[in-house]
Each structure stands twice: as C-alpha cells, then as structure tokens.
Amino acid sequence: MSFLSARVSPATQLSTQIFLPSPALKKRAGEGREKLQRQNLRVGSGPFEKVYLRVILTDGDRIQGYEILDVATPTGRWGASKSCAPSGRFEGRPSGSIARLVRFKLTHYGVSPAFQSVSPIGKGADVGETRDHRQILAIMFTDVVGYTALTERDEAAAVRVRTQHRDLVRTLVGQFEGEVIDSTGDESLSIFPSALRAVDCALALQGALRSYPDMRLRIGIHLGDVIRRNGEVVGEGVNVAARIRPLAEPGGICVSEPVYQMVRSRAHVKAHALGAQSFKNVSAPLLVYALVASDSEPPRPARRRRRVLVMSLASVLVVAAVMALNRSALLAWVALNAPRFLAHPIEQKIGFAQTSDGVRITYATTGQGPAIIVVLGWATHIEGGIGSPLYDVAGLLPMSSARHLFVRYDGRGFGLSDRDVKDFSLDARVRDIEAVVDALHLDRVGIYAVSAGGPAAITYVARHPDRVSRLVLAGSLVSTGGLRSEDLDRIRRMLPIYETDWGTPAVTNVMVEWLFSEADDVGRRVLGEFLRRSGSGRAVAGFLRAQLELDASEQARQIAVPTLVIHARDDHVIPIEAGRAQAALIPNVRFEIVEGGHVAGTGGTPGVRARIIGFFDEDSGVVASPK
C-alpha cells in the first residue's frame, strides 16, 4: 500500500489503520521513547510494534483528534479505546505515557499527514490480522544530500526541500509503474515490478532535479526477495537497497549486481563498477555499480499491456449492460476510460520546474523546433485533462508539435503541479511561466495565451521582451472588466460553493454550462470530470477570486513583439468586445475574428489552431530549442 495524504472536511472522521513505526521509523520511535524516559515519563517495556488509530482530520491535513484503538508491544497486546481531543489530552487506559509517546511521534517526527493506509477499521475489528506476500521486486531508496545540515541551518528551507522531494518521488514513481511505500523525512522507499522500471525512474528523478538547484539525491536500487506485510515491505532485499544508497555520489545512482545485469544492455544507461562491497547484516559481499544516463533517450513510462486492454474491454461490456438505460452516462464513461487502453498518437516528455517562491510546476513537451508555450494557468492536467495526449480527440497536439517544441504546463494549484498553494496573484502566475522557460533553457519562446491566461502572458511579455518572439492572445482579455456583469455576479456568488463543493457534479456543471455551452450532454459530463480532476475547490476559488482583481492594461501598452489577437464572433464567455478592447491597447497588433464560440476562439478547433501555428511559423528559425 502506498502512503495516503488524507484531505477531508472539518469534523469528518476517517477510520484508518496506522502502523507505527514503519521500517524507516523504528529508530525514531526508540529515540522518542528515550526522550520521554529522560522526561521521567513511564513508557512501558520496550518500543511499540504497532499502534492502531482512528484519526479525525481537518482540511489541510492537520490532526484534529485521534483515538487509540489498540497497542501491540513485544510483550503482548494492550487493548484500548483511548481518545485524544484537539488539545492533545488523553483519557482512558492503559497509562497515558503510551498515548503521549504516540502523540510525540506523530507531531515531533512529522509522521502526519502521511499515514500508511491499510483498510478502514472500527471498534471491535480484528486489528491483529496480518497477511504476508513474498515477491521479487526492485527496491529503490532515495535520500536528500545534506538534509540534516540544512535543517540546522534553515528549518523552513529544509521543510520545503523535504516536501519537494516527496512530491517528485510520488509523481515519478507512479509514472514508472512503481509504488511509494514510505516517504518519511528526507528519505523514500519505493518498489517496482522490474529493475528496468526502477532504473528509468531513478534516471528521471535525477534529470528532473536540474530544476531544483538546492536539492541533490542519492539513490540506491536492489533486486531481491521481499515480504509485503500490511502495507510494509521487509526482508534482506530492503536492507541491501538501503545499504547501497550511501555509496552513491550526490546526484548519483548505485545499483546491485542483479539490477546491473538486467539493464546492462540498455543503450540509455552507462555504468562503471565500484567493486565488491560488504554490508552490515548481509552475509556475502555484493558487486555494486554506479549508473549514469547516456546520450540516448531513456524509455518513457510504459504503456498498458495487451491483456489489460482485453480485461478493460470486458469491463466496458459489463458497464454497458449495467448502464444501458443511461446512454449519456455510458458514452461519457467510455470517453473517459477507453483512451487509457489505446495507443497514444503522440508521446510527451514531462519535466519539473521550481518557481522563485518555491512552487513546483510540472510541464510537458512534444515535438521539436522553435518553442511555443501555452499559457492558461488553471483547470488543466497535462496527463489526464483537455488537450493531453490521452484526450486529444481533434489531433491538435500533433498539429502543434509538427514543427515546434510545444510546451504545456499545469499552473500552480492544478494538475500535477503543487496544489497546496494560496497565491494566485498576477505576479505568482508570471513566476510559473518564468520557471518553465528557465527550466527548458529557452533563449526565446513564442507565447500562446488562452482565455484566462491572457493577463499573465501579457505581463510576462512586457517584462521579458528579449525572450519572446511572438505573442498570440486567443479568446482572452486583459481584465475581467470585459466580462458581462451577470457573469461577474454569478462567479462571485458561486465562489464559496466552488470552494466547498467543487467535487459535486451539480456544482461543476455550473462552470461547464458557462464555459462549454455548445457541448452536448455527453461532452458536458466528460468536461465536468476534467474540471474536477484538474484541481480542488479551494484552488478554483482562489484562482477565480484573484482573476477578478487582475488588470494587465498597462502592460499591454508596453508590448513590442509581433502579436495576434484572435477571437470568436459568438464567444459568450469572453465577448468579442473584450477582444477588441484588448487589441486596441497593443501596438502593431493583428486582430482576427473567427466563427464559432469560446472553444473555437481559443484555438480548440483544427482550423483556428492552424491559423495560430501559422502565425508562429512566420518567425521560423528565430526561437531556440532547449539546449
């Protein structure tokens, strides 16, 4: 089982089985017990093997209270039903020292909010049941170089680095068919079905860190026999992988002989032998190798296998039988799920950038040539949203990438970028663009702003005219003053509801009706699901609340690069008058009107997208590809 970061509404009770300590926490649990002993608190006999809790969480992953259901020690099990109020006061039996130890570990060692999720339990559940499952797996350990020294020097920076490390690992491990078992502190433990998947993930991790100059990782990988037990992974294979990791240089990867034999023939991997190494608690020396990426491009995350396709098609038939009476729901389900099991027409490369205020931005690139970056900033998901390779029904991505390096990114708070953010100001959105351009080492880039992305794109161009070749403003506006008064009133009224109930289809459909009124019932269901996937209600409300205050009129007057403003005649979201007003502010602008609604005006149809790409082609050869 992987770690689960639980986010629930205030006062909502989540029953979760939590094991403390996990392998990475046993030493820390002992340290906590010793500290409590020094404080003359009775803690019983020996460190505790397992603690089962029912946890009450508040929004934002803060513990509001928790109840101890059962405590297991080396000398036996103490059944209990103990409660902890938000104040941290415990009542009940056994002695409060156990409860204090649990609370100490949860708060002092930062175990919360990452809980090992096994299965919901309640009072009277058999919490003593365990299940062992033996497997041959690739085990990967990572840790942050210099984390302890950083903690002593700058605790806030250490917390930021720890969070970035955890987010990177969780994002990339999943893409390479792996599973994160533990990500406590500056370390992580992950497992993979094959050595090649683990090595490819490690190479991707080290490659992604080019965008994080303050963070370097050591990675160790071993292929061995392990036991999976209630969300934990134990065995000599885990021990060996942990011992290999310290041998890696900062920014390096070390692997055992079994892993090396599995990847030695791969063109994208280079290795040099470090010789036989002896490890504590390992019976025989083991050959270890240091790996680096060669100039050849590593394989991308694996596609679904053919048997998965067959199983999935069978599932489609079952669902079709169940949903036969609801044609729209069935077609929407197929539209959302069938693409996951079919070949993608185009592959994308995913990378990570870090803004000047410490926010991780995830971007994707397709194609080669002069660079174009799409600016929207909200309601996106580069892997599973509108315009991603998975759902590019109109074939706009191959068209845009045929002669260009086409860059898309998830704005802060959305998609695969950092979601726990509060700043959606104009300056913050410009920092997102700056981070992506810098991460790709682009000398000059074409900016393609869509809808709400207009103000941020205009501001970026005004601040960095030397790094922009051309600007397209498609279905956008410089400020919300261009919207209809009834639309502004509706947005303001809906903000609190978006914030608390965005996951409810009826609420999301209000936004769908406004943005995609021309869509049929199936399309609206699909688009509603995309919006819910893209981000939380808190992010949506935060973005829109900031959007209502934006005005880039002054920056628009400063634009000195060739600019195309393109707008749809029947755009009811951003009226064509707003497009005209925007164009009137920009010197030497080209203004074009296209037929259709908001989707067409933003370049969402092949004909309009071809006109937009053609405008960038007029500057052929000016924009540099990534170095």
Alpha carbon gyration radius: 27 Å
Global mean pLDDT: 75
Proportion of residues in β-strands: 15-25%
Number of helices: 20
CATH topology of the largest domain: Rossmann fold
Q: According to CATH, what is the class of the largest domain?
A: Alpha Beta
Q: Helical proportion?
A: 25-40%
Overall domain count: 4
* CATH architecture term of the largest domain: 3-Layer(aba) Sandwich
- Low-confidence runs of at least 5 consecutive residues: 1-130, 296-308, 621-627
Q: Please report the distance between the alpha carbons of the first and last residues.
A: 40 Å
Describe the global form: elongated
Sheet/helix structural class? alpha+beta
Features:
23 strands, 4 domains, 627 residues, 20 helices, alpha+beta, disordered C terminus
Would you summarize the structure shown here?
This protein is an alpha+beta fold and 627 residues long. It folds into four domains: 3-116, no CATH class; 132-293, Nucleotide cyclase, GGDEF domain (Alpha-Beta Plaits), CATH 3.30.70; 306-341; 349-617, Alpha/Beta hydrolase fold, catalytic domain (Rossmann fold). Helix 11 packs across helix 12 (454-463).
